[in-house]
Write a structure and sequence with these properties.
CATH topology of the largest domain: Methylamine Dehydrogenase, Chain H
Shape: globular
Structural class: mainly beta
Radius of gyration: 19 Å
Oligomer: single chain
CATH superfamily of the largest domain: YVTN repeat-like/Quinoprotein amine dehydrogenase
CATH class of the largest domain: Mainly Beta
Helix content: under 10%
Strand content: over 45%
Number of domains: 2
Mean pLDDT: 93
């Protein structure tokens, strides 16, 4: 018992020391993108000052220093995500409409080969320590593991449900992934390539976005029932929750500020602070724009980026018919930029 108290006390002290005083986020800029079609996941290569944004059938490449579109990656039908692996000079796209992962040259932005995945490849996670890419196949209920250097499939892991976002914990040798239809997180052993734990997220339901605080062994999940959960990745127990908005998809964690972000399609991003091992507190409800449900955090600048567009009025559904999504107004697609105020 004394050991547990000492460990908890040390962890609380570390959190207090690293947290500091949170500064409210403010809108800094908008980056015009244009074009047509929907969008999904975005990722950042901080060293290269590049942001990769999945947009319909291509990936938009944004120069974050200039705040402009620097190019596009084509031949990515139904793309959901893109991850750059700078040390290899290549990146990988998850092409949902063809059940393949594209291998892309980061200099030319050309697709140089494709790798078969499971059905409905969606989010991805990269384990830099082992040089392996995990492609989460939402319809296939599986993860395809790819050797990034060889550009070949290592194995396929059955997940027992529809995966959403995942994250690599290189120190722990695990990959964590939200299973949306089971409302749980699975832990994958990165060496054995097998699921070694399943952790319920109750009271959270329908998790999508995920983020990791590796130092303090905490996982954050944004859930469809307007909750963000904080789970202990050692015990597998949910230790705290905070309310968020409707239509969440993205999640991020800033190690330096100890802030967790939940981007929601209703036009709000909840910002919560990890104040203690079992305490998560909302510090800001940031007004964004309708449709800004996915996000990426630049750990160097602490800025967050959220894509959205303007929408036509939603059509009235016929009696008994499901709600119809409103159409996107062409050429209004953009990237919202927020950061700590001065």
């Amino acid at each position: 018992m004394n050991l547990k108290i000492t460990t908890a006390g040390l962890l609380c002290s570390l959190l207090t020391a690293t947290a500091g005083t949170a500064t409210e986020y403010v809108k800094l800029n908008e980056i015009a993108i244009g074009g047509e079609g929907g969008w999904d996941i975005l990722t950042i290569d901080s060293a290269a000052h590049r942001l990769y944004l999945s947009h319909s059938t291509q990936v938009e490449v944004i120069d974050l220093e200039k705040g402009v579109v620097a190019g596009q990656i084509a031949d990515t039908p139904g793309v959901h995500a893109f991850i750059a692996v700078p040390e290899l000079g290549r990146g990988f796209s998850s092409n949902g409409r063809e059940a393949k992962a594209g291998v892309v040259d980061l200099k030319t932005l050309k697709t140089i080969s494709k790798i078969d995945t499971g059905e409905g490849p969606d989010a991805m996670a990269y384990d830099a320590k082992r040089g392996e890419l995990y492609v989460f196949n939402h319809k296939g209920n599986s993860a395809t593991v790819i050797d990034a250097k060889a550009a070949k499939v290592v194995t396929t892991i059955s997940l027992g449900g529809g995966p959403e976002f995942g994250v690599a914990d290189e120190a722990a040798g695990r990959i964590y992934c939200n299973i949306e239809d089971k409302s749980e997180i699975v832990a994958i052993d990165a060496v054995k390539h097998e699921v070694v734990a399943r952790w319920p997220l109750a009271p959270g339901e329908g998790p999508s976005g995920i983020a990791l605080d590796a130092t303090h062994h905490r996982l954050f999940s944004t859930c469809d029932n307007k909750l963000m959960t904080m789970l202990d990745s050692e015990s597998g127990k949910v230790v705290a929750t905070v309310p968020i908005g409707s239509g969440p998809d993205g999640c991020a964690f800033d190690d330096k500020s100890q802030l967790a972000f939940a981007s929601c399609g209703e036009g709000r991003t909840t910002i919560a602070k990890e104040e203690a091992p079992d305490k998560l507190a909302v510090v800001q409800s940031l007004k964004t724009e309708r449709g800004a449900r996915t996000m990426a955090l630049d750990p160097d600048t602490h800025r967050i980026y959220l894509p959205t567009a303007q929408f036509e009025p939603a059509p009235t559904p016929a009696p008994g018919a499901p709600r119809v999504r409103p159409a996107i107004v062409p050429k209004t697609f953009k990237l919202l930029v927020y950061g700590p105020g001065k």
